[in-house]
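Suppose a colleague, Dr. K., hands you the sequence of a protein chain of 120 amino acids and asks what its three-dimensional shape might be. Before reaching for any lab equipment, you can write down a predicted structure in token form. Begin with the sequence itself:
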Amino acid sequence: QVQLVESGGGLVQTGGSLRLSCAASGLTVSTYIMAWFRQAPGKEREFVSRIVRSALSTYYAESVKGRFTISRDNAKNMVYLQMNNLKPEDTATYYCAAGSGLSTISYHYWGQGTQVTVSS
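The predicted structure, expressed as tokens, is then:
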């Protein structure tokens, strides 16, 4: 019933840009903390970015700060990740997640992932 479907991944050159989309159904994105994670081959899944329910605050991993921007469109019930100045180390499968919590966040729902490959 609840689905998060990512799209927008692909192959891009170093320094290029991509915009990832997360389409939610059976869930209202404005009532959850929405986040992006990524996982590269041979590495553990890592946090990339999240946006709070009010959309007043956003958070980013140090590795992407200043290059990536998370945003939300409540009318479309979608979340986006604008990725600029991409680097080869950004190559990974990117996952959209929905969660809740204050001192700690638990992510209840996950998308299937979309592949991002940055060539050098």
